[in-house]
Amino acid sequence: MDAYEDLLAVVYHSSLPMWGCQSLKMRIYKITPFSVTVDRDVILPIRPNSILKWFGFSEEGMIFCQDSLEMVRCYS
């Protein structure tokens, strides 16, 4: 999990891995002083036979992830 301003991102397994591929999703929560709501769900594709190595927010609030085969993806 990682946070930026009023957003919290959590990556989790959405189902069992099949054929060497991880099934990952990222849920982004919007947090206010009075409530916590789900902002969006994002499928997090990574390359076959790899694992999620790192993910986090940039200084501008964009989400980046990197798998163990060094593929970097960006989500806005």
Give structural attributes.
single chain; 76 residues; mainly beta; 4-stranded antiparallel sheet; 3-stranded antiparallel sheet; 7 strands; 0% helix
Polypeptide structure, described:
With 76 residues, this protein is mainly β. The strands form two sheets. The protein has a four-stranded antiparallel β-sheet with strand order 1-2-3-4, with no helix packed on it. Strands 5-6-7 form a three-stranded antiparallel β-sheet, with no helix packed on it. The radius of gyration is 13 Å and the shape is flat. The mean pLDDT is 89.
SSE topology sketch:
Blueprint: E1 2-4, E2 7-13, E3 24-31, E4 36-44, E5 52-57, E6 63-67, E7 72-75
Q: Got a strand count?
A: 7
The whole-number mean of residue pLDDT values reads 89
Separation, N- and C-terminal Cα atoms: 17 Å
Spans where pLDDT lies below 50 across 5 or more residues? none
Task: Give the amount of beta strand, in percent.
Answer: over 45%
- Tell me about the biggest sheet? 4 strands, antiparallel
Order of helices and strands: EEEEEEE
Helix count, DSSP H or I runs of 4 or more residues: 0
The general outline is flat
Q: Considering DSSP H and I runs of 4 or more, what fraction of the residues is helical?
A: under 10%
